[in-house]
Amino acid sequence: MILLDAVYINMGGGKVLLDHLMTELENTNEKVFYLLDDRVQNNHIPVKQTNKVQFIKAGFVQRARFYKNNKNSFSSILCFGNYPPLYKTSAKVFTYFHQSLFLELPEDLSLKQKWVYGLKALILKIKIQNTDYWMVQSDKIKNALAKKFKISENKILEMPFYPRLPDTKQVDKIENTYTYIGDAFVSKNHRILIEAFSEFYQKFHKGELILTISNREKEIIDLIADKQMKNIPIKNVGMVDRTKVSEILQCAEYVVYPSLAESFGLSIIEAIEKDCKIIGADLPYMHAACEPSLLFNPCDKKSLVEALSLSLQKDIKKSTSKIPNKIFEIINLLTHHANQR
Q1: What's the CA gap between 278 and 285, in Å, rounded?
Q2: Does the pLDDT value for residue 316 go beyond 70?
Q3: Residue 112 domain flag
Q4: The domain containing residue 279 runs over which residues?
Q5: Measured distance CA(22)–CA(45) in Å, rounded
Q6: Which of 53, 83, 256, 314 is most exposed by smallest CB count within 10 Å?
Q7: What would the pLDDT profile of 228-265 be if each residue is shown by its tens digit?
Q8: pLDDT tens digit string along 66-81?
């Protein structure tokens, strides 16, 4: 039996990838056990009667108890949440690592956030021998993971994967429309985008910025409201489903990506598939994911204003993706080792 352990995945791009993994595993004839975060109990991919699902709270104690009781229950395991099993098992174990903040911390994180991520990285280091292989989304993450935790590079497999967005009605791009898909976590750097777009609009009186920020991000929501009071055309549509994301990208001319830390950047790939041009942070993750149309320094508002200004020109090159989709290679690895037992 295969175990898919996704205890720490409950929202955002990680949840999108989890749903894709589950869908493809459900298309096989293998028996699969899903260990999931209890926050997705009412929002997960339906599974066949021959497969099993268990929900637990996303904590070390509950997860450790599960592995202690099931050390010899599985033939292959995919830990889809950065951490290997908390106990050594008899299975062939793959750990999918996609948290770049365990590798390098942006300077503008608070001391508390740096302490939390530092502690999580230490726990990862302690349990590093409990996995046979690591899977990562890019060469950048592979190199950083190998260096930080002294892992042999032949134990780290580059396995990027992503689902296609739903097809939506074909419409023409709306000129000078900008968007950024994702919630306003600190590392996503929404504030500098909002301030730069406001300055850009006040100078040129062109453009609209569309964001997808949840109501719990009150500080950024209040900032948007303040800009709207000043007639800056910023629209927040809230957290939306993938069909709505597809519709937004279908219409947008540009996706602006100021994030300070990404292991992959799913919305970059999705945007390019929807023929959007990328105005991207001049950081390694961006260069690993694509050839963007325009670049800027994500810590410098003036640099982003300049990039937005350049986007008004008519000869801006298209963006191109560098990421292959290896979902079936991942499934084949899991099923191959499941059949070896």
Answers
A1: 13
A2: yes
A3: yes
A4: 174-321
A5: 7
A6: 314
A7: 999 999 999 999 988 999 999 999 999 999 999 876 77
A8: 999 998 999 999 999 8
* Same domain for 88 and 42: yes
d(C-alpha 335, C-alpha 341), whole Å:
11
Rounded CA separation 137/123 (Å): 22
Give the pTM. Answer: 0.71
Contact 82, 99 (CB under 8 A): yes
Q: Rounded to the nearest 5 degrees, what angle is found at the Cα of 286, between the Cα atoms of 168 and 272?
A: 20
**Do 115 and 179 share a structural domain?**
no
The whole-number average pLDDT for the span 88-112 is 79
More confident residue, 44 or 227: 227
